[in-house]
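Newbie here. two chains, one complex. Structure please?
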Amino acid sequence: MTGARRTTLPARGLRFLLARRRVLLRLATWSVLETGQTFLIGYGPARALDAGFLLGRPDTGLAWLAVTGLGVLLGAYGTARVYTAVAELVEPLRDRLVERVVSRGVRTGDAGSLSGLTQQVEIARDTFAGLVMVSRSFVFTAAGALAGLFALAPPLLLVVGPPLAAGVALFAATLRPLARRQEAFLVADEALAGHLGTVCPGLRDITATGAEAHLSAATGERVEAELRAARALAHWGVLRVASLALGGQLPIVLLLAAAPWLLAQGVTTGALVGALAYVTQSLLPALRNLVHGLGASGSRLTVVLRRLAPAEPEAPTGNAVPARPEPTAEPPPALALSAVTFAYGPASTPVVDHLDLTLPPGSHLAVVGPSGAGKSTLTALAAGLLTPDRGTITVGGHPVPGPEAAAARVLIPQEAYVFTGTLAENLAYLRPDPVPEEELLAAAEAVGLAPLADRLGGLGARVDPAALSAGERQLVALTRAYLSYAPLALLDEATCHLDAETEERAERAFAARPGGTLVVVAHRISSARRAGRVLVMDGRNTAYGGHEELMRSSALYRDLVGSWTPGPARRRSEPALTLGDADRVDAVAGPGLAGDGRHVVAHGPVGQVQAPGDLRDGGSLGREG
Amino acid sequence: MSTRADDDAAAGHARALLRTATRYSGPRCAALCLVSMAATGAGLLLPTALGRALDLLLAQAPATRWVLSCAALVLLLALLDAAQTVLTGTVDARSTAWLRRRLTGHVLGVGPRAADCFGSGDLVARLVGNAAEAGTTPAARAALLAALAGPVGGVVALGLIDWWLAAVFLAGAPVLTFLLRAVARDTTESAGRYQRAQGRIAAALAEAVEGVRTVRAAGTQDRETARVLGPLPELSRAGHRMWRVQGRAAAQAVAVAPLLHLGVVAVAGVLLTRDRLSVGDVLAASRYAVLATGVGVLVGRLAGLARARAAARRLGEVEAEPATAFGARPLPDGPGRLELRGVTARRGGRAVLDGVDLVVPGGTTLAVVGRSGAGKSLLAALAGRLADPDAGEVLLDGVPLRELPHDDLRRAVGYAFARPALLGGTVEQAIGLGLPSSSPGRIRKAARAALADDFVRRLPGGYATPVADAPRSGGESQRLGLARAFAHGGRLLILDDALSSLDTVTERRITDALLGDGPGTTRLLVAHRSATAACADAVAWLDGGRVRAVGRHEELWRLAEYRAVFGEPAGAVSGAET
């Protein structure tokens, strides 16, 4: 699992096998039974003819055949045991692949890891098992047959051996180009499947834009590419046939052609028949399995493994579970951004542009602005999930990113994370040590989770995330964050699925946390009103101040407040309309976003803050409620 | 769900598909049939030739002719094998490609209905997996006769050498199979346990993937990984068990054929001692016994054909869904007047729209409002013929939509959706989807109108960013979808809840741009917010599948029930779209 060094797939495979020498030994031991069976398949009938039937002694002949039959049964037993040994090779590989897929999925949030888990890992498991079986079978069968030939009459080896070696050599030489064709085919097949995977869910949009012909042509191109790859593969298949003919069928003719010489060398009739049996019944099928199995499965396994286990990327930033921070004499600002600039690509316009912001401990800030203004980017920067292109960020005086800063903040995103487990496990998730039940209950009460906890059946009840509504999941996530030791809470639309009263209760609970600083990406205007300070983000029109102040100075803020109130009925209560993306797609798990590793949206730039103000005046406004 | 008639139709379509696919590679299939028969024939001749050559060689008689004919047969077999390999691979590939082209074209012709009927994931599985399986049918059928002839020929040849040999083979086969079957165990149980453990891991991983922001922010990646991997030991145990069970089944399979073969050789040996057979005959008998045990292969092939047939049926089901038909009546010039006459549409046996009459004069904007399930989206779909009504007619500038040719209809009507599917390689191509030629200027102008230009330019590659790599929120997706609709143009623009994920300021800016566009476009807006409805020239209030009222928003606002349409649900929790 360390894989920090960039190593090639074959080298890693070799390491994997070398670490399992005992299993390989067991595999070899049981395979020897198969070798024995193969040996008897030619030797038994040969002796049955020479010592029995040809001498008019049918009982001796039948005895030899019975021995051979016994060998077959023993060989079959060996086959059953071989499967068990193969399992000890295959299952650890599967375990390791599952571990990798899960570890990567958890880190990147790549939804593609799910299909990796259920499909590609299984393909790898099956093809690897097939490879082991086929190559092992060839080696041990060939050994049995060659030993049998030697036992019957050494000159037979001279006739059968060279063409067999030539056939295997030809196959080995063509293995690489064949594997390339096979890989090209798999790639074309996947490209087609991926393309159809976007076409089928998009049928409505294709019809609506009248783009059927365009998509049909685009699909046709991929179908054509796959067809070309498949045809090339079929043509290269001729090489397999050639290796088979050379290694497996030529010896038949050679045995006949050399028969007079062999008979002159003292080779018996039975030995000749036995040799033919070896060639047709053992070597030819084993070679056929090898030639067909190794070519197809080998490249399939390579492709899948390369996808599942690429050289491990950078080590995960190991910010451990937050521990209780030590109190300091002079409290540094809870959050400070200085000249922070951030863009999603080197060529793209910055989302956050030269932003300065200082929040003293205990303050309560609301961030508002149209969707795409950079609000989520700001929280991600503060949490250290994104690194600014320029400027510095500190949390509680600790530089971001860094373990101390990570321990001093908790980010609650819009998409609340609840996992299958007990409610207590879910709530204590951010705490390194076991949390007393009373503390959990008190937190649930403070945030407003208590009714749900009762309904679920208490803290020990198992939670099924799918059975909870989006709002209920948010309540769980909020209570969890409330319990964390981190003094700075970043709520990124974390209350968007709650109704106004529940939201207010939760926000006030956070604001009342002793020494707690709260940054809320506001979802309703009431959120902004509760906050002591408001940051308005939108392109160059960024403004900062108190509610009343901004109502006077910021047109955008007035606009936002105004549109929070529904059209013709301005008298109506304010919570009716939302400020943010109420049903924002979870971009991480969303379709088509697999593997991009980012989860924060590219938003509008934040210009220089117009009126930086002095936040220290704000004091602990958050506690006023 | 599906009736017997549907089944028959699907089976009929499946048969027709396979027939046409076979005809598509007709000459190749015929060649494959001949080649495979020739290969089987050569394979059946070879043992006799071997036996005869051996006898002559042992007798030290001149055997050159027979040795040469053996060599010729072996060479012929190799050549035929090569031809068969190429033909089978080519026919499989051609048939699969043909089926995929045909079915994809059909699915595109059916349109959104296809995804409704089968589900888009299942549709992909049919077009990819089932088409590949069904595509093996023509080649497998062409080679079936030869596959049958091999084992049968083997038994017959045994009988020709000596009837005892055939009798032993035929008697022994069922007995041995039966005796050894007792050893085999059912693999389904262990496979089921394996899949359950795998399912538990997958479910936990799906949760963690969804919560990745929380996990990453909390730095609990390692703990999460360990938690998700909890059932791994059980998976491993189940996996080992599976191999054990499979090993037992394999042991049975590898024992049957050699034992049968030995039985035949034993009888042949006894007959040799009685001088009824020569050594060459014994050799030939031994080879024929091997050929006869090829029955197992034949059974496997038949099972493969049955699977392919089942796959073809699933394609037949898709094919049985009729494609949308278009008319030939050209769309006359006009202001874009939309008219619904007595439109009724049923979904799942329920009339979602029930006799709706509605007129949107050219160049005006109509907002459609109503509670969830009132049929707003269906109405939007009918208005631009994404679906057809079960009764009634939809007319654009006096022409029923059904009578319009495809291009006229699609050029005239543009759509934007709440959750647009963005197709095309890059963001630019996604916005320009369906446009006849590339027109960067038009695309950027549309993006600006949809307030998407800013954030697109902030993407890592700007407009050239692959659409799959463009991280975007629901609001950003909607703006790209709007940009696509604006770039598309047309005399009728239908926005099906296409502003729902935008914040109110952005929404107002876009509606201002949209409505300030001039009288050239008729607009149909499905709206959830009163501010949106307030911008429209008129509002159609849908309730229970009927138009409850049409009027100006301010007038309707006096009605408490109308106001209730826009009220937030009273419950604790609500998504914007429930």
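Moderator note: Chain A has 20 helices and twelve strands. Chain A touches chain B through 192 residues (CB under 8 Å). Thread marked as resolved.
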